[in-house]
Amino acid sequence: MLLQLEGIFKWVTTGGRRTFLLKDLNLNVKEGEFISIMGPSGSGKSTLLNVIGLLDGFDEGSYNFLDEPIHQLKQKHRANLYKEYIGFVFQSYHLIDDLTVYENIETPLLYKKIKSSERQALVADMLDRFNIVGKKDLFPAQLSGGQQQLVGIARALISKPKLILADEPTGNLNSKQSQEIMELFKQLNKEGVTIIQATHSEKNASYGQRTIHLLDGSRNRTEV
Question: Of 90, 143, 180, 190, which has the highest C-beta tally within 10 A?
C-alpha cells in the first residue's frame, strides 16, 4: 500500500465555530493506481491533495505514507519525503517568478543534490519532451498560461516521483494540450507512477481507474 488515510478531519475555526474542510475521510491507495477525485468547488479536493502531498497538516486521524506514520513525523522528515517521492502539479502553477523556465524545472534536482551534468541532461530531456526548448531562458511572466502549466508539469516529473498529485492539471490548457497531458499521465501510470488528480472534467476523470466523489469534505458513502 502506498498510502492510507484513516478518519481524517481538517477544520478552520472562525468566531468559535468549526468549518470542516475534510470530515472523517478514509482512503487507501495502492502503488500504481490512477485515481480521479471529483466534486463541486469547495468540496475539499485541493485540501485532500495538499494533505496527501504533505503540504498541509490535519487536525485528527492518521496518515501512513510508504509505511511512515505522517501524523507522528517532524516537519523536516515530512519535507524530505515530499522531495524524495512526490511531484505536485498545481492549478495556479506555483512557478518561481525570478527564475527562468530552465531554472524552475531544475529546482527539484537541486534539493536532491544531483550533480550538474546529470541535471543538465534531465532538464534538456524535459524541455524537449514538452516542446519548450525555445522558452528555456524566459521568465514565467513571459509565458502564456498554458506554457506555464507545461513548465509546472515538467518540474513535477523531473525527479521521477513515485506519486504525482495533479490539481486541475489541464485547467488552463486548450483541448489539444489537455489531451496530450492526460495521455502523458496515462503513459507514466503504465510505467508504474501512482497518479491522483483532482478534476472537474468527466473526460479527464475517465483516465483514472477509479473515481472518488467528495462533497463537503466527505466521500460519497455509496462508493465501494
Answer: 90
pTM listed for this prediction = 0.89
Among 110, 120, 119, 105, which Cα is nearest to 154's?
A: 105
Q: How many domains does the chain have?
A: 1
- Residue where the block lists cell 491507495: 29
In the numeric block, the cell 494540450 is attached to 177
Cα 32-45-213 angle, rounded to 5 deg: 75
Cβ–Cβ under 8 Å, residues 169 and 153: yes
Nearest Cα neighbor of 209 from 10, 1, 35, 13 is: 35
In the numeric block, the cell 506519486 is attached to 163
Tens digit of each residue's pLDDT (9 = 90 or more) over 194-204? 999 999 999 99
Task: Give the domain CATH number at 42.
Answer: 3.40.50.300
The answer to whether position 125 is within a domain reads no
Q: What is the mean pLDDT of residues 95-114?
A: 92
